[in-house]
Prior knowledge:
- By secondary structure, the chain is mostly helical.
- The protein has two domains: 2-211 and 269-491, MFS general substrate transporter like domains (Growth Hormone, Chain: A, Up-down Bundle); 212-268.
- Helix content is 73%, strand content 0%.
- The chain is built from 20 helices and no strands.
- Helix 13 runs antiparallel to helix 14 (313-338).
- It is globular.
Amino acid sequence: MSAPAQTAYPDKIDGAVLKIAGVVVLGAIMSILDITVVNVALPTFQNVFADSPDAPIAYSTVAWTVTAYTLALATVIPLTGWAADRFGTKRLYMLALVLFTAGSALCASATSIEMLIGFRVLQGLGGGLLMPLGMTIMTKAAGPARMGRLMAILGIPMLLGPIGGPILGGWLISNASWHWIFLINAPIGVVALVYAWFALPSDSPHPTESLDLLGVALMSPGLAAFLYGISSIPGEGSMNHPKVYVPMAIGVALMAVFVWHTFRPAHPLLDLRLFRNRNLSSATATMFLFGAAFFGGLLLVPTYFQIVRGESTLNAGLLVAPQGIGAMVTMPIAGALSDKFPVGRIVPFGLVVITGAMFALTQITSTTSYPVLIGILFVMGLGMGGTMMPIMTSALRTLSSHEVARGSTLLNIVQQIASSVGVAIMSVLLTNNLKDSPLAGPATATWRDPSLVDKIGGQGAVTQGLADAAQAFADTYWVAGILVALTLVPAMFLPRKHEESRLLDDVDPAAPPVVLH
Length: 517
């Protein structure tokens, strides 16, 4: 089996596989940017959809534009593995592009907050399919010898999306209008759709497996309810509120029953039997802790720049950009190394670098120089570029071709839960640490207003308030740093010796490698 694999999948990355990578990256950029770009527009939504300029819509209402997208994303992700087998990855990927693009255009046409929330659900249904399908397509197109390098390409939008989203959103709102944070997806989506039609290879779907309807009834609403409860924590300030613990309890109960059920049918919605694969289980545990720390930590730095340093949303996004630049430096290097060496010898180094940078941020003050902050963020980016995609590569490399779609679905669900948990933890900790600060309310440079300075108690009180606020961020970074350090524990179980890929185990050696199953 190894000889045909080497013939079918050359070691070098050729033009054919780069065309496929281009389609996947376009889809990933749209999906991931849209998760973060809308966050910047929430204050705008409060005013533009209000009945009166003097009575803006409550923040808790407009926040549903983010929550609805996330819940739709979570609801559809579990169906990806079954749908890929049933309809084929090319058809399903193009359907996801249509849903996402149409949802984006409809969002731009919304005339009420209720309409916008509804159209964000449609957008989320498409976005939820794009990432797991993209990982499946990339894995199968790359083959065993090139998986690390190809996954590194997919990792660029995954790391840069949370950084680029606030920059793009702030610029579009400042220079155009809020409509363009959605309209910009329309031409990109059309190009991606045409590109996918010509670049993605034909499918050979396996429609013999029936849909696990009971699994759908348990997992999708269970995951959505759990994430809704998690996402409600920052707004309520703790878990001790019915809006938090009731949906979380319902979600956990439904998912627990799903876990019991999933070992009964021959073809479950999510095949938890895959966790018998040590690579997948250790990579998933590592990804969960890393995702919680990474996405939670991403929330803190731009917020620090806005609250403590008085920067605009756009400037705050630009100041975080060095983190993305650092990731771009090491990501292709880590991808190449992942194709030659076991990831268990690569990932721990990246985690150590991130941990050091996180702990360095525990020393920030209200006057820490920008060159120092930019340097720390760049170093953190170097570590991130060497961590996330090698973990995913390890998880998928030893799965057979037929298992890849379901394995990538599991990884995306874990990442979605981890990011929600991380953001909730960091938001609550930061809010509690800031609650005694007189500057806790202003989220921009409004505290520079002379009337507000007098109201707070004069310039001396402002200076002390800034110092206290900076300390709140520093204290919160201790938790982020500890989470990354704990990630080293499951990372020690990642493979430290060469393991043969099983990607071609269920593929006909005579079949062309570009035919996706």
